[in-house]
Amino acid sequence: MELFLHYSLIPSLFIILVLSFLQRREHRKQRDDTSHLLGNRFGIIIPLDFVGTFSNRWSYGIAFGATANKVMFLFSEGYQPLHIPQWAQAFVLLIGGMEVGLSHFPFFACLSSEFRLVSSILGFSYSLIWFAVTILYIIQCPHGQFLGKYETVMFYWPSLLCLAFLLGRFLHMFVKSLRVHLGWELQMEEKPFLEVHQAEHVKRLLRKAPLQETKKSWFQTRVYEWDPCFQFPSRMIGTTVLAFICLYLFIVIEFCMFMYVRDELDVFEGELENYIASMNQTGTLTPVILQVKELMNVSKGVWLVTILPASLTCVSYLFHILACYRKHMKRLWAGNKHFLPLKFHHPSSSKSVVAIARYSGWQIAYILWGYLIIHVVQSLCGLMIMYSLVLPVVHNQGLEMLQGLGIGTLTISIVLGLMTLQVWIATSFFLQPKMSTADKQKPLALNNRKAFHNFNYFLFFYNVLLGLGACLSRLLISCILGTWLIARIDRTIMQNGYEGADMGFSAWIGMLYVDHYHTNPVLVSFCNILITGHRERRLQQAIKYWCLNQSAGPRVSARSRTRWLLLQTLVNNPKLVMLRKSRPGHSSREFTQILLMGSES
User: Fold this and answer.
1) How many angstroms separate the CA atoms of 279 and 260, rounded?
2) CB 3.0-4.6 Å disulfide test: which of 331, 342, 363, 399 passes with 336?
């Protein structure tokens, strides 16, 4: 498969040249060199619009899914075509990423090309080649050394499923474009500048009376509520699909490594048993060896059991990140930036552009590494539970375990009780009464100051010892939350003021700002109005007798129309009257009265 990856560049470059030849350049500069011989051919083709593509989203997502095996190949740093020094590994991985992108470029280019008939034929042929080679590889090498039978099938069935979907998609494109070419169907309209969901969002904002809220189901209330006025861009769908497949492959690879390590531990355990048998269980190392064997057995069981909760945690993170993307975008559309740290209210434009290129790859890497870290943390928690609760019962030490658990629980309860008692004493004796019965709490005004100073003095020495436990609990909670949320690129795990050091969170914020500036429904609607008006004016100028069409209705001067629109705006927004710039010699109120009189006339 690695060899075929290199040879697939030949048909890939051929398809790119064909589509580039069909793509015409809109702006061509006349020069004196031989480039004028190309005419306006060989335009630049794009795989997909990473910012504003909302159509054909799942096809792009499945095309991303077809690259999952190659992405995991790069992630494991298995791409080593040349023997180079260690310091140059970054360049090798860059070349590998470029090669993988170039080999899968035709999938995206054929999906996004305007020449549907030719691109569907090329895309179907290229997908069929990849599908056939993958099937041939599975038939030749179906088994593996870790999982045994059908190991290769477990690795490659997601890519096969994605390739099969692309085959069906390109076949559907071919049939539809052929019917259009033969005149059996009408040509589809070109991609609209303003998407339907964006227009619906603007209509919702301009609607005066709110819609009647329907009764929401349990899923809509607790899990997720679908919004018809919002759609995820193709980049987010493709990133999520690829992250799901890569997470599955990563779990399979991890399980293979677990099987290998388990077999090695079984061999080591057999050697330990032989040693114990040779010493007739009377050696000085026999108790230590038994504890080591118990640790290995418990570790294997805990690691195997925690695969499911760790994987479910990362899967839930992928869905939660999509929900947070929608929530954050809606807040930015409304002009609300309070959910962002202060230093991210005005991010760098260049860093934001780079962030949208980084986000998809970083999100997948964060999910994979996050799964591994979460799995390790959950395994450590499982070991603690086994050694503190389960194994004492197995070794007939349940009473001692319960005694130690009770003493520990009582100690923590007393410490928490003393802390709660301090708060109750402060509330009851050291704060002045409420100023009103409607107040929720007492005002921050000291009462009984002499008793308060004695209270502080005698608790000073105790709080020194209490602060040690609070410091350790702070460290423990920070470690647990940091490792638990490491896969969440939408949430920083840094302290307040150090968010800029979190490169993943910075990429998330930059990506949000790029989408906000380029896909804001209000901005896109405004630009659509300008473009539509410009096209209408050009159309009117192209018609020879367009004045005859205009004479059918009453003629309205541009000045009167502008004044009427201004009047309507001021009536609907009275506060704008005080903010208007006044004419020389007139106040804003006088000018508004003149405007009203002129409009009435």
Assistant:
1) 29
2) 331
